[in-house]
């Protein structure tokens, strides 16, 4: 019975079928003869070439499911081979199609025949190898050289899958290698080297190889060697290799192959060395051949070649004897060459560490040489943090080596190995000294304390069971140096308390190194406590006090003394402005006392602790602290030690369990908790996304925070550039402060302020001051009223498929009307930021439908279920906005600076599960801070552009030279409580941008902020665009505000000094100034950014003035990105 011919598939149907198989839906097409369709479609001339390549890849990926498992599979193999031969012999098919067909067919043969290769004699493997041999048997043929290279690689993969498959035709392959002169000779050489490697490794029996130089078996026709077919007969014994026949010939082949490394690519050379070096070892050839041939690889700039050399070096250590230091110095030099990629330099450090370990294990006498070059391992200041970490690891390992060395082992080091060890430790941390003032969560701080740990436990690893090594570490100079460093750093920088606490807890948590942690706690008790200053900052050290109190090996006397002094301080300083400080710090003192009661004997604590608690009961200002201290004192006096510890342990609360105040069983029941899965919420950001609608021009990854600089109240008010109050403020507000860059200063006494000198101003300055006062009077003082807000528009969406899989929400196929995509309900987005953006309100999204999977609607079916959640006229591939919800992030900046906004989500799934987690952060750029200047209410219509220009000129003059008379003025803000002064600065930037591109960039990004265009030529060009409106147009540069710019007829150049000889003629050029653009930008909460662009034909000189100098750090990148964005 003849089978019905299969209907060919269209390209769209092919794409749908392939996607179904890739997504696990192959069972839907079991009735379709997919294999026959594939073989017939690749031979069709009407299908595009990309689709044919896609079909071949599909056939290769799903060969296990497409090819039958019974004996009829050989017929499909032969059909696949016939299709391949037809394509290879076709003169019209492109070579890329032929190459892919060869690769896919070879992969299918290897995958399926290698599973059950007992019947290789009847398999179509012979005809495939014969075809490949026919292709490569045309050396130096130019047209198909790429195809010959692919055929060689296919043969090499067959040889790797079926070792010694080509062993009987080795002479022919050697002859082809000698004949080939094109660039594909590398493929021939790699094929021959792989074949020789298999022959030497497996030693095939009954081989027809009598002599490699003389062929006895023809190249074509090809037959599978008998020992591969009958391999079961030889599975019990070893192969016997006829050395007297092939040994000399194999040496000749190796000598021929060793001439090829200079002509190979790095990847080819790596494969070549992988197969050649084992052959050299097996044949016991002289390793000096490899040394001469491959020693230059270490001096290349390719990581692959360096890695290959080190692999060879590790196998032939004796042959490279005497070059140890040369190799080490070369690896060290690699790590110091900054022009290399960071990955290469990191690899060099890893190699160097492994190389040193290899040398020391081989010969302990080489330790002295390693220690001498270790002085070159110090990290430099401008090394990346990863490089610094690895270099510190090297220094820690060298410190371990120096422990067992004699005193005269290293040159130029006085005092012996202990001094040398301390030198490595201290000098290595010079480039990392910034950890002291960096935040405790910084990566650099983590690297430093990781180095501390390595230096400490390096001489006493976990694998070492000798107890004497621990005592030697405790008595070493490095340990004493580390103790001194930790005490000094902690007493000076209170931010390190949490990091040092984690470091000590790590040692205390290790069974082997717990004694080191105990010793550090004892050191902190003996030396740190006496250095601490008694003030409010002492509250930061209470975590360390807790760990000292927990250690029963440390005497509590010193801790009780400092707690007593601290209580005296709190009692003396308590006042109406103290607030909750006394209560919080007093509670911390009692917490430390409770810890001592739990971990120490009452007899040792009784005298000192009873005095402290009695003083607290009598004199402490907070009632709750007095009551709690009375309870502790009564228990200390009345309850024996063991029972007291039991009571205090029982009183400890379990995490998340709050005991009921009522003894009734009803009230003691725990309240029902929400269905919240913390584990599932860790990767929530992978399928729920909040993204900006408008991407930033500058991908700002850094910001410039400034510390709050204290300004003496005795300074005149016109020297203070921030906002200050006209009315006195409390001391508490003075201590806490707000934003660092807005520089809010509070006066405590008006009588202490110096009187401003009497000034005489001309009419021009007076008019400028009037404009500025009017402008500042409309700027709100964010300390006393709502400030200016900035809105960042974003979108919220989530992927339905990943969401349903993670939270077990059913999502059925799209063709059922009663089913719909998953949704989330009552979504609340909370925003936080470490940048000074003020309080950010939450955003509520009542309802949101998930995005449909990407594989929906590939077959052109109608998705009726989407009609439930989106308009009926939207098709299945449309309506993207229906699956996104708008999100608005409102900022109230205290300082115009970029930063990141952390986004936290809390929402509900359809099955009642509560979903909480953190999403990806939203970047805030300096361009988000750009606002238009506030317009007074009485200025409308045509008067607005002139007001903006007058304000620009006044601000330009005020932000000019420090001697400007407006720099000593103070301006009252809206509300009448705050005043501000202008401390201006200026800068300049030259942009090599043609005038047309500059106008397009300004029109696209800065149009709302342009206040004036000057110059007849520039005015004509800008008016022709028709985008900028409601601004002032001037045909001549008769304004005083641009008198600082270059002359109109000269070139654009930078003046480095104000007193440059302006009578000197600038360089002669034909590039003239087209005009000027004045741009006024308001930066909340009260700052300004002014641009005056001196526009030339091929370049533009941007004069910048601002009253907030930190923003200059971001303006440079913004201008670069602004004009890079031009077409």
UniProtKB/TrEMBL annotation:
<dbReference type="InterPro" id="IPR048979">
    <property type="entry name" value="AP5B1_middle"/>
</dbReference>
<feature type="domain" description="AP5B1 C-terminal">
    <location>
        <begin position="1076"/>
        <end position="1121"/>
    </location>
</feature>
<dbReference type="Pfam" id="PF21590">
    <property type="entry name" value="AP5B1_C"/>
</dbReference>
<dbReference type="InterPro" id="IPR038741">
    <property type="entry name" value="AP5B1"/>
</dbReference>
<dbReference type="GO" id="GO:0016197">
    <property type="term" value="P:endosomal transport"/>
</dbReference>
<feature type="domain" description="AP5B1 middle">
    <location>
        <begin position="247"/>
        <end position="644"/>
    </location>
</feature>
<protein>
    <recommendedName>
        <fullName>Adaptor-related protein complex 5 beta subunit</fullName>
    </recommendedName>
</protein>
<dbReference type="Pfam" id="PF21588">
    <property type="entry name" value="AP5B1_middle"/>
</dbReference>
<dbReference type="InterPro" id="IPR048981">
    <property type="entry name" value="AP5B1_C"/>
</dbReference>
<dbReference type="GO" id="GO:0030119">
    <property type="term" value="C:AP-type membrane coat adaptor complex"/>
</dbReference>
């Amino acid at each position: 019975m003849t089978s019905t011919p299969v209907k060919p598939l269209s390209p769209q149907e092919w794409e749908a079928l392939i996607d179904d198989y890739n997504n696990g839906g192959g069972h839907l097409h079991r009735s379709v003869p997919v294999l026959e369709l594939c073989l017939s479609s690749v031979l069709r001339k009407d299908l595009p070439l990309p689709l044919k390549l896609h079909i071949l890849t599909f056939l290769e990926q799903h060969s296990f499911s497409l090819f039958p498992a019974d004996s009829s599979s050989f017929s499909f193999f032969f059909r696949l081979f016939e299709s391949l031969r037809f394509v290879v012999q076709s003169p019209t098919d492109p070579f890329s199609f032929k190459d892919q067909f060869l690769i896919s067919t070879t992969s299918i043969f290897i995958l399926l025949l290698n599973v059950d290769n007992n019947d290789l004699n009847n398999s179509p493997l012979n005809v495939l190898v014969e075809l490949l041999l026919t292709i490569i048997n045309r050396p130096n043929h130019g047209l198909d050289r790429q195809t010959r290279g692919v055929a060689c690689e296919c043969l090499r993969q067959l040889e790797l899958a079926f070792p010694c498959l080509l062993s009987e035709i080795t002479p022919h392959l050697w002859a082809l290698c000698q004949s080939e002169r094109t660039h594909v000779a590398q493929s021939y050489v790699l094929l021959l080297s792989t074949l020789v490697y298999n022959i030497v490794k497996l030693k095939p029996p009954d081989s027809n190889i009598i002599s490699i130089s003389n062929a006895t078996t023809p190249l074509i026709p090809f037959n599978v060697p008998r020992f591969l077919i009958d391999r079961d007969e030889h599975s019990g014994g070893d192969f016997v290799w006829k050395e007297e026949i092939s040994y000399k010939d194999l040496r000749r082949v190796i000598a021929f192959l060793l001439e090829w490394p200079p002509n190979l690519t790095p990847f080819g050379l790596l494969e070549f060395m992988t197969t050649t070096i084992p052959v050299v070892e097996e044949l016991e050839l002289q390793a000096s051949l490899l040394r001469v041939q491959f020693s230059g690889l270490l001096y290349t700039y390719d990581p692959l070649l360096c890695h290959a050399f080190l692999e060879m070096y590790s196998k032939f250590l004796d042959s490279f004897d005497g070059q140890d230091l040369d190799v080490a110095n070369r690896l060290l030099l690699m790590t110091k060459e900054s022009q290399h990629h960071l990955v290469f330099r990191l690899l060099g450090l890893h190699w160097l560490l492994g190389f040193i370990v290899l040398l020391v294990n081989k010969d302990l006498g080489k330790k002295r040489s390693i220690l001498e070059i270790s002085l070159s391992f110090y990290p430099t200041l401008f090394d990346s943090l990863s490089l610094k970490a690895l270099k510190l690891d090297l220094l820690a390992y060298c410190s371990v080596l120096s422990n067992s060395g004699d005193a005269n082992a290293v040159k130029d080091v006085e005092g012996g190995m202990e001094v040398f060890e301390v030198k490595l430790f201290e000098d290595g941390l010079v480039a990392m000294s910034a950890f002291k003032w960096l935040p405790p969560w910084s990566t650099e701080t983590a690297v430093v304390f990781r180095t501390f740990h390595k230096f400490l436990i390096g001489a006493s690893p976990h694998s070492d069971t000798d107890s004497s090594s621990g005592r030697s570490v405790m008595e070493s100079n490095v340990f004493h140096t580390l103790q001194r460093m930790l005490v000094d750093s902690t007493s000076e920088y209170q931010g390190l308390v949490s990091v040092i606490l984690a470091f000590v807890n790590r040692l205390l948590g290790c069974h082997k190194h717990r004694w080191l942690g105990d010793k550090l706690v004892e050191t902190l008790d003996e030396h740190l406590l006496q250095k601490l200053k008694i003030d409010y900052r002492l509250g930061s050290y209470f975590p360390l006090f807790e760990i000292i109190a927990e250690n029963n090996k440390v005497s509590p006397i010193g801790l009780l003394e400092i707690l007593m002094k601290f209580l005296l301080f709190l009692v003396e300083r308590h006042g109406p402005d103290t607030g909750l400080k006394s209560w919080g710090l007093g509670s911390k003192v009692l917490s430390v006392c409770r810890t001592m009661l739990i971990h120490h004997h009452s007899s040792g604590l009784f005298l000192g602790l009873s005095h402290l608690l009695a003083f607290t009961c009598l004199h402490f200002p907070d009632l709750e602290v007095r009551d709690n201290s009375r309870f502790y004192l009564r228990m200390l006096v009345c309850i024996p030690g063991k029972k007291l510890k039991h009571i205090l342990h029982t009183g400890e609360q379990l995490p998340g369990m709050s005991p009921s105040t009522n003894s009734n069983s009803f009230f003691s029941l725990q309240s029902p908790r929400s269905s919240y899965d913390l584990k599932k919420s860790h990767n929530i950001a992978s399928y729920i996304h909040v993204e900006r609608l408008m991407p930033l021009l500058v991908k700002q990854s850094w910001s410039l925070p400034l510390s709050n600089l204290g300004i003496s109240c005795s300074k005149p008010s016109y020297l203070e550039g921030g906002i200050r109050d006209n009315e006195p403020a409390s001391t508490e507000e003075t201590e806490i402060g707000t934003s660092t860059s807005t520089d809010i200063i509070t006066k405590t006494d008006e009588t202490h302020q110096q009187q401003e000198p009497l000034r005489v101003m001309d009419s021009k300055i007076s008019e400028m001051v009037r404009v500025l006062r009017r402008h500042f009077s409309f700027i709100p003082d964010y300390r006393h009223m709502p400030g200016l807000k900035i809105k960042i528009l974003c979108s919220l969406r989530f992927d339905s498929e990943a969401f349903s899989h993670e939270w077990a929400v059913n999502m059925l196929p799209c063709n059922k009307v009663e089913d719909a995509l998953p949704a989330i309900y009552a979504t609340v987005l909370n925003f936080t930021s470490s940048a000074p953006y003020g309080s950010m309100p939450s955003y509520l999204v009542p309802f949101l439908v998930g995005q449909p999977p990407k594989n929906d609607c590939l077959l052109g079916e109608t998705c009726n279920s989407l009609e439930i959640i989106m308009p009926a006229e939207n098709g299945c591939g449309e309506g993207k906005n229906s699956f996104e919800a708008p999100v608005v992030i409102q900022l109230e900046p205290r300082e115009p600076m970029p930063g990141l906004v952390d986004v936290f989500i809390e929402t509900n799934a359809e099955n009642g599960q509560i979903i909480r987690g953190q999403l990806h952060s939203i970047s805030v750029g300096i361009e988000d801070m750009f606002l238009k200047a506030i317009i007074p209410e009485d200025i409308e219509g045509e008067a607005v552009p002139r007001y903006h220009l007058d304000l620009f000129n006044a601000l330009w003059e005020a932000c000019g030279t420090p001697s400007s008379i407006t720099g000593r003025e103070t301006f009252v803000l809206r509300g009448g409580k705050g005043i501000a002064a202008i401390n201006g600065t200026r800068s300049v930037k030259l942009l090599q941008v043609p005038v047309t591109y500059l106008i397009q960039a300004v029109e696209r990004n800065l149009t709302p902020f342009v206040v004036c265009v000057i110059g007849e030529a520039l005015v004509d060009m800008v008016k022709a665009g028709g985008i900028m409106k409601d601004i002032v147009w001037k045909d001549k540069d008769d304004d005083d505000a641009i008198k600082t710019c270059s002359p109109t007829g000269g070139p654009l150049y930078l003046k480095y000094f104000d007193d440059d000889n302006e009578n000197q003629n600038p360089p002669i050029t034909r590039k003239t100034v087209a005009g000027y653009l004045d741009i006024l930008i308001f930066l909340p909460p009260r700052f300004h950014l002014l641009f005056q662009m001196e526009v030339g034909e091929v370049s533009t000189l941007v004069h910048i003035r601002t009253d907030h100098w930190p923003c200059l750090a971001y303006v440079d990148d913004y201008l670069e990105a602004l004009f890079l964005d031009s077409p």
